[in-house]
Amino acid sequence: MTSFPMNAGDGVYSYSKNSQLHKEMIDGAKEMVIDAIIQKLDIKTILSSSNTFHITELGCSVGPNTFSAMQYIVEALTDKYLLYQDQVINFTNNIPEFQIFFNDHVTNDFNILFRSLPFDRSYYAYGVPGSFYGRLFPSRSIHFAHSSSGINWLSKIPKELVDEKSPAWNKGLIHYVGASNVEVVNAYFAQFEKDMEIFFNVRAEEIVQGGMIVLITAFSGYIRLLKFFGSSLMDLANEGKLDESLVDSFNLPLYYPSPQDMTKVVRKNGLFSIERMELINIKSNLVDEADAKTLMMSLRSSIEGIIINHFGSKIGEEACARTILKSEEISEWMKVNYEKPSILFVALKRK
Amino acid sequence: MTSFPMNAGDGVYSYSKNSQLHKEMIDGAKEMVIDAIIQKLDIKTILSSSNTFHITELGCSVGPNTFSAMQYIVEALTDKYLLYQDQVINFTNNIPEFQIFFNDHVTNDFNILFRSLPFDRSYYAYGVPGSFYGRLFPSRSIHFAHSSSGINWLSKIPKELVDEKSPAWNKGLIHYVGASNVEVVNAYFAQFEKDMEIFFNVRAEEIVQGGMIVLITAFSGYIRLLKFFGSSLMDLANEGKLDESLVDSFNLPLYYPSPQDMTKVVRKNGLFSIERMELINIKSNLVDEADAKTLMMSLRSSIEGIIINHFGSKIGEEACARTILKSEEISEWMKVNYEKPSILFVALKRK
After folding, report:
1. Which of A216-225, A266-275, B176-185 reaches the highest mean pLDDT?
2. Which keywords does this chain's UniProt record carry (chains A, B) (predicted)?
């Protein structure tokens, strides 16, 4: 299991200072998340043995986006609880307490996360180090799990992509975005399928009956911008500053599922029901302003670490810096090609 | 509320590399902790609504000592559970799961803690940022709380100690150790009493009926070595490198309770029963070898941060470095004055 932390700290290239994209996604999904809780969550079942909501944020990074999501989830759960209380005679009067388990890889900067926790939070906050492709919690102990831009990160890169004898060899590219070879996308999807099977199996152990998982992932729009990082690397290779085989042997471990992909992996697993699934168009301020630089800085904060890890800090940083310098070109490209940005929202319930 | 983290990271003066004293304490208390669990813990009551043990380590710092303590506690709880299972017909066959909540101030280095977690641990591990003089957990959610060298840290320094008009003014000293003025000790104890009242009140909310708190604190021996840090600061004052009023206005927020002190604060609070209380002599390898330097390095890793915080890094580091240089003098002093090192062990049960 490999880990790919966001850029640490709070410096100029840090995730905490460049997470506007993720903020848009969290804000874009807000109404859907609240609606799923109000319409679909069965409070009676999930709180049958507890007066405390146990919530986990899977892939929380360092904030601040994770805190705004947790805040509206706590508020929605409280509203739902009060609605239920009004409907039931003799129901306990105690407002439930909330525990939030902020999970990310052990390499995540939990110190920054903890020091950024809102002072006026209405929940008990904990850090959970470890991959969410493994067990993190005792059996049947979680009521609500949330992950935004989390499950896009594959547990590893499928070998075929870097095997020159394989039909899925992804020569000269660093992702399936921009690849004309369908075998490349297939290899990515196969890995996503395997990872999600593991993900659902471990979550099914941890989540109480009737408990909910909400997954939010980018679907269209800025995903296609990833290819510019690959072209910067190829520029360096063409200038002789980098051996092209290093590009051939690298692929970003990111997969962006379609609604069809998501339906397939959930049904195949069989332990969760799909309560809501929707593509949501987000009004991207970033796109309206065609602020390609902000957009690319945001992408950079997510992927620079893994690029440096493969190419070394000198080449990795130069490739990222060059990509940011292409902002004008990227801006032109966006005006012509940019799809309306949208996210995939899915709410699942433990059967 | 002020926080006083141990020296961070894993450098030459870090707590993680200089925590031999705390290791001795943890090892010294091991048999008592196990015995208290086996003899005194009422498994039936505490697990009546859960098949998961919720354990917290209060003031965990960064490891490695916290991990050895948690390991033997998990083993003892498992043994106790199996003993109980043997005695009861129709008792569930599931071995319970363990959640361990590692707590310390938000300024603690949780990144080091998480990266040092044992790979083969048999528990789910979480980090809990915050002062243990406040609420950390939902009501009635903790079964076992452990703190070694934690409650020695007062929440703050009583004002009288730094008020030159008060009879408790602690002029020229940085602790009650070495002070001839009884008002100084009284002021320290009064703060300890207030802090423990808060500590027991919040823990009483969090701990299930029959749940246990184990507290381990240094009692005699190396405590008296703290005065050498004070004398190094006074040396600097006498050399004109430091204004003496800065020494007068500083006191280490550390109190080392006697069994009588502990009995008094527990009884005054009234929410816990004393199941075991004992002074344990520890066979200090450090003392046998009269390794004053190792001992002083260990003390330094605990208190350097707070000294630097008051005196600035230049003076603070110099005072600590000078104290270490006095190892020969300290060694001589130890041979004449050193009491047999002992720790206070107390096991409490939530009524």
Report:
1. A266-275
2. Magnesium, Metal-binding, Methyltransferase, Transferase
Chain B 130-159, residues with CB within 8 Å of chain A CB atoms: 135-139, 141
Strands B207-220, B342-350: pairing kind: antiparallel
pLDDT of residue A96 exceeding 70: yes
Chain B residues touching A129 at Cβ < 8 A: 114, 117, 125, 127
User: Band of the pLDDT at A326, cuts 50, 70, 90?
Assistant: confident
- The most distant pair of C-alpha atoms in chain B lies apart, rounded to whole Å, by 76
d(CA A133, CA A128): 13
pLDDT over 80 (residue A206): yes
Does pLDDT of A286 surpass 70? no
Q: In which band, very low, low, confident or very high, does the pLDDT at A331 lie, cut at 50, 70 and 90?
A: confident
In angstroms, the first-to-last Cα distance of chain B is 28
Q: How far apart are CA A292 and CA A330, in angstroms?
A: 6
**What percentage of chain A exceeds 90 in pLDDT?**
59
| Residue matched to tokens 């006498």 | B238
In the three-class reduction of DSSP (H, G, I as helix; E, B as strand; rest coil), residue B142 is classed as: strand
The DSSP symbol for B153 reads B
Going by C-alpha positions, the residue among A157, A317, A339 that lies closest to residue A232 is A317
CA nearest to A173, candidates A234, A241, A253: A234
* Alpha-carbon gap, residue B206 to A66, rounded angstroms: 26
Q: B189, B262 in Cβ contact below 8 A? A: no
Q: Which strand (E) or helix (H) includes residue B69?
A: helix B65-87
Tens digits of residue pLDDT in B132-160: 999 999 999 999 999 998 999 999 999 99
**What are residue A254's DSSP bridge partners?**
A153
Question: Which residue is it, tokens 């360096």?
Answer: A236
Tens of pLDDT, residue by residue over A109-138, are 999 999 999 999 999 999 999 999 999 999
HSE-CB for A310 with a 13 A CA cutoff: 24
Q: pLDDT-derived band of residue A287, with 50, 70 and 90 as boundaries?
A: low
Give B-chain residues touching A127 at CB under 8 angstroms.
110, 114, 126-129
Overall size of chain B counted in residues: 351
Contact B117, B125 (CB under 8 A): yes
Q: How far apart are CA B342 and CA B283, in angstroms?
A: 9
DSSP B291-330: -HHHHHHHHHHHHHHHHHHHH-HHHHHHHHHHHHHTHHHH
Which segments of chain B are extended strands (E)? Answer: 52-58, 97-104, 124-129, 142-148, 207-220, 272-281, 342-350
- The model carries a pTM of 0.92
pLDDT tens digits, B6-50: 677 767 666 666 667 777 788 888 899 999 999 999 888 888 777
pLDDT of residue A304: 85
Query: Chain B: residue nearest A139 by CA?
Result: B97
What are the distances in angstroms from CA B172 to CA A104, B88, B309? Answer: 48, 62, 18
In the chain, the amino acid numbered A302 is: S
Separation of alpha carbons A218 and A201, rounded Å: 23
From chain B, the residues in CB contact with A139 under 8 A are 51-52, 97
